[in-house]
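@channel sequence for tomorrow's demo:
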Amino acid sequence: RTMESKLGDIEGAEWLEGAELLRQGAEARIYRIDFMGNPALVKHRFTKKYRHPELDQKLRYRRTLAEVRAIVKARKLGLEAPALFHVDFQKCMIVMEHVQGRTARDVLFDIEQQKGEQHEQAAVALMQQIGKSIALLHNGGMVHGDLTTSNFVVRDDNELVMIDFGLCFTSRDSEDLAVDLYVLERAFISTHPSSEMLFKKVLNTYHGNSN
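structure tokens (generated this afternoon):
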């Protein structure tokens, strides 16, 4: 059987038959579907056969619930995050908006290939958006857990959206917040080695908006 058919194989999820698999991680598969006329993603935390069935269900349920709560809270804080369309806690599936746009990673790659003041200003503006978004999250007592330039999407209207709240947790501990920023810094160094000054723009904006 193909990976694309696995969602449709789940009892009660026949309406997802034909969903396109985008990627698979250790805990979940991400599919692309059309949900009531809207481009959407389905995140399905699949069963781990090596775990005891009851423990497996509890773990998948708790992680699904935590991610849903994180997205809802982030949006209440005023952060741009994917809209939730449907949640099935029994099957551990989240149907959410498929944010249309390009990752901040790809946008930065393009900017790095260009020269000129206009492109530098675009890069600085993007860094400021990222810094402000992280500050909003942290001010609300939330830690993302996986901040990378791939987990920010720039919509066609240049609105910045934070995505992938699967590792998000609640904390106001300064060390947890610092680690969140450190993860992003390491991502910058490994993915955008010539962008050290740009990351400083992220930090400057972050500190300027932090409570």
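heads up for whoever presents: The longest helix spans residues 53-76.
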